[in-house]
Specification:
This protein is α+β, with helices and mostly antiparallel strands and 251 residues long. It is built from five helices and twelve strands.
């Protein structure tokens, strides 16, 4: 295998193995930014002794690709990373070593060797859960009915290029209301399936749409969690596991 030295005492080789990881942001760590996670993850790679491959160029970087990170302040059970390794490594051991090296609340929950295809193309949609304290299920159902009845709902978001207006309704495929358990006060829980696009419709945009069409303004900030990402199911009520195709080839 060819090796090219670009810094004294360090050698760089092309990846011999790629691994896709799923991680979760839980508890207070949902307030960590994407940059906070990047720093924690790169420290964990060093602590776990993972043999990383590096990019070419004057300032090589470890081969890490992040896909569609959740906004700061939002919990998630389905965030994805792809890394390139300079040596073969057992994926189960890799997951366990990285999880141990990460802060509690930033949890590495799954790992699979890359076998085929592009990961980002499999992330067509997200399943978002909104726990709405002090909003009754009846209020939630009435708001969802108005949301789904609308043909278009224009929302605004400040972006790097300035204020942008876009249709949030088109990306919302399904929305359903359930009842929280008694320990959560029996409030409304809203589950929404949103397809990804440009710009992507984020949880704040869904809440803005509900405020606009149904005047729904939760008196307590909602607890928002991304439950899943993947390819949209035929009924648009869920998504498939984006790591499943790699497992299928391995089996």
């Amino acid at each position: 295998m060819s090796r090219v030295s670009r810094d004294p005492g360090r050698e760089y080789i092309a990846p011999v193995m790629k691994v896709r990881l799923r991680y979760a942001k839980r508890g207070r760590l949902r307030f960590s930014s994407h940059r906070d996670f990047q720093r924690a993850f790169e420290r964990a790679l060093r602590r776990a002794g993972v043999p990383m491959a590096y990019s070419a160029g004057f300032r090589p970087h470890p081969k890490i690709s992040y896909a569609n990170a959740a906004p700061t302040g939002v919990a998630s059970e389905a965030e994805y990373i792809e890394i390139g390794l300079a040596a073969r490594f057992d994926v189960d051991q890799l997951r366990a070593d990285l999880d141990e090296a990460m802060p509690t609340g930033l949890d590495i929950v799954d790992a699979v060797e890359v076998r085929e295809g592009d990961l980002v193309s499999r992330l067509e949609a997200s399943v978002w859960q909104f726990v709405l304290p002090e909003v009754t299920p009846q209020e939630g159902e009435a708001a969802v009915e108005r949301l789904l009845a609308a043909d278009e709902i224009t929302v605004e978001r400040m972006m790097k290029s300035g204020l942008r207006r876009f249709d949030a309704r088109n990306a919302i495929r399904t929305a359903e209301v359930s009842i929280a358990p008694p320990e959560q006060g029996g409030c409304a829980i809203l589950t929404v399936v949103v397809t990804h696009g440009t710009p992507s419709v984020r949880p704040d945009d869904v809440l803005a749409a509900l405020r606009q069409v149904a005047d729904l303004v939760p008196p307590v900030p909602p607890q928002v969690t991304r439950l899943a990402q993947g390819r949209l199911a035929a009924d648009a009520r869920t998504v498939s596991d984006p790591l499943a195709p790699d497992r299928a080839v391995a089996d």
